[in-house]
Design goal:
alpha+beta, Fructose-1,6-Bisphosphatase, Chain A, domain 1, D-Maltodextrin-Binding Protein, domain 2, 2 domains, eight-stranded mixed sheet, five-stranded mixed sheet, 8 helices, 17 strands, globular
Length: 335
Amino acid sequence: MSLAADFGITLTQHVLRNQHQHPDARGHFSQLITQIGVAGKLIAAQVRRAGIIELWGTTGTTNVQGETVQKLDRIANDTFIEVLKRSGCVAAMASEEETKIIPVPKEMSGDYVVAFDPLDGSSNIDANVSIGTIFAIYKRNNPRDVVDRDFLRPGSEQVAAGYIIYGSSTALVYTDGVSVDCFTLDPSSGEFFLTREDVKIPERLKVLSLNECNEPYWPAGIQGYLRSVKAQNTEEKRVISSRHIGSLVSDFHRNLVKGGLFLYPPHKTTGRGKLRLLYECNPLAFIAEIAGGAASNGKQRILDLLPTDLHERTGLYIGPKAEVAAVEAWLAKGE
């Protein structure tokens, strides 16, 4: 039996097989997904070598968020920009690391705009904790010029979204709005192979993911919800566990596979959330919904929010549909 038969379907084969779902894409959609896979391979190679070639640590600068930029942040950002710019599929990009949108020269531009977090969880780099890239894909609105409005739109208008996680293995998970599929990079062949098809979030809650040290800042209602969940555990049987990595993409990936709810409430006084709507919450919310789950800011569906800024922040509750609804109910009660 051949190696290809042993491993199964590659990312490129899968995208081409499903391209009929995007009849207006003119091939750009299929090419874009495969080029994102290429960028993921390049970033994964740098992540694996980080300690050896001294890529740990900071650049000594801060980004638009006021956060310290890690060396791998800059490498991942530059890699994603350059690969997508040369793909011929993208008209503009928005990155966590950049203040404004990144235009693509007209002679190289394509049908889509992409918003991304090049290296989510980068504060964990030096501790060897899994990190990842998150991306959201939209059709461009204006055939001539790309402006902020091409990005400042509800997440429900995404045509695809996904993430690449760099951990014990490198996995690429994406949805084209029809199914959520997971691919794992085989280092020996340099190919992403389909390893989980049509992924669904388990309906039964097994894991809670949140930073409980932030309790003093939570809005009223979160404590009540947590008490109700923890009450399911008895002396005879533990039903719910707590698992919090502190890397959004890692926490979400584990919950997608195992069945868990991720909570990052906004500050109770300011109402301001921590996570970025455009390139963190929207793509993961799109994945969650296609996988049978839900995502909310506590009052409203994440995918219905209309951003007014490229780097707008929000609270996030994401996981099984029933649990997200339960959080919303407790927040409404304020107990």
